[in-house]
């Protein structure tokens, strides 16, 4: 849990395996610590973090592993459920994973004797992203290279099925827009679906490909961001279906886009994992240049803390954390 200046990270956590994906819990779990989950080649680890930026009594960062869940196959994506509570008796941990065998796995644990998981079958190709319904947590949406977005209940029954025109790369569900899903496709189209009528109601266009990642801004429901090619792009959905702002950022290709959860003008992007390093860039819409540049050894995944301007990237036996200014 040391301060690490060599790669200009604020903190690092050592892990037993390569970290393919890392995800802060975006929901309040009723505890002063933040939950974080990361996935390796055959397990998911759930732990808690506390940072000196939020607690003066913490020196740097405190990390504690709560439980390691056997997964049996490489973890490609993780989504947290809003039903996760550390202040309940007993506590409840609930998350869902996507794996390289095209299946979703829903895990529920009380961190003691109860450890359940269910497998959801249906996708016929690689699953790129998944998300829980943000308010009740009773449904999960997933997108895949099989050109579908599917919505499941917690028993694994398919409740909705949207046919896409290219691979689905990102899916977002906004707590203030609970009856809409945002789905981003590799061909550069971002569509919003009405979950009541199960119809597309709005679409945005990148006008460039491949779109690899998109995100719906928590702090401003009108803002959408994405990376396509080597550029980041940002839309105001009330103004146009074309981006209001775009900028080339990564020399090769951009891989991930994530809005900060505390500031609607702050976001991060990563480049494609190179042979040795992955570039992380933190951007502020008020600044012409990135406000932070970081590198992670063969990094993958990108996630923002729920209440701090702090993001994390997984890597080779490590998680890297960067603190930025708001």
From TrEMBL:
Protein name: Nucleoporin Nup37
Keywords: Cell cycle, Cell division, Centromere, Chromosome, Chromosome partition, Kinetochore, Mitosis, mRNA transport, Nuclear pore complex, Nucleus, Protein transport, Repeat, Translocation, Transport, WD repeat
Subcellular location(s) of the protein: Chromosome, Centromere, Kinetochore; Nucleus, Nuclear pore complex
Record's function text: Component of the Nup107-160 subcomplex of the nuclear pore complex (NPC). The Nup107-160 subcomplex is required for the assembly of a functional NPC. The Nup107-160 subcomplex is also required for normal kinetochore microtubule attachment, mitotic progression and chromosome segregation.
Subunit and partners: Component of the Nup107-160 subcomplex of the nuclear pore complex (NPC). The Nup107-160 subcomplex includes NUP160, NUP133, NUP107, NUP98, NUP85, NUP43, NUP37, SEH1 and SEC13.
Gene transcribed to yield this protein: Nup37
PROSITE patterns referenced in this protein's UniProt entry, alphabetically: WD_REPEATS_1, WD_REPEATS_2, WD_REPEATS_REGION
Entry's Gene Ontology BP terms: cell division; chromosome segregation; mRNA transport; protein transport
Pfam families in the cross-refs: WD40
Organism from which the protein derives: Sterrhoptilus dennistouni
């Amino acid at each position: 849990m040391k301060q690490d200046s060599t790669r200009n990270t604020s903190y690092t956590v050592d892990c037993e395996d390569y970290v393919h994906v890392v995800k802060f819990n975006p929901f309040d779990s009723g505890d002063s610590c933040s939950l974080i989950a990361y996935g390796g080649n055959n397990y998911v680890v759930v732990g808690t973090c506390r940072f000196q930026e939020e607690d003066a009594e913490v020196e740097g960062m405190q990390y504690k592993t709560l439980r390691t869940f056997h997964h049996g196959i490489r973890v490609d994506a993780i989504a947290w459920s809003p039903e996760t509570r550390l202040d309940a008796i007993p506590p409840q941990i609930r998350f869902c994973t996507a794996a390289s065998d095209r299946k979703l796995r829903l895990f529920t644990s009380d961190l003691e004797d109860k450890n359940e998981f269910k497998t959801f079958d249906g996708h016929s190709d690689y699953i790129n992203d998944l998300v829980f319904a943000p308010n009740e947590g009773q449904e999960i949406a997933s997108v895949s290279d099989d050109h579908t977005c599917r919505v499941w209940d917690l028993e694994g029954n398919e409740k909705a099925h949207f046919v896409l025109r290219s691979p689905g790369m990102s899916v977002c569900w906004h707590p203030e827009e609970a009856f809409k899903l945002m789905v981003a496709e590799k061909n550069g189209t971002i569509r919003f679906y009405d979950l009541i009528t199960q119809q597309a109601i709005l679409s945005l266009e990148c006008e460039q490909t491949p779109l690899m990642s998109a995100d719906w801004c928590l702090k401003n429901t009108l803002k959408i961001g994405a990376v396509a090619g080597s550029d980041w792009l940002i839309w105001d959905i009330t103004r146009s279906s074309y981006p209001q702002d775009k900028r080339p950022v990564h020399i090769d290709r951009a891989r991930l886009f994530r809005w900060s959860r505390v500031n609607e003008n702050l976001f991060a992007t990563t480049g494609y994992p190179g042979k040795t390093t992955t570039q992380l860039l933190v951007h502020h819409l008020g600044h012409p240049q990135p406000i932070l540049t970081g590198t992670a050894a063969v990094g993958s995944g990108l996630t923002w803390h729920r209440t701090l301007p702090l993001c994390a990237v997984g890597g080779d036996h490590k998680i890297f954390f960067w603190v930025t200014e708001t």
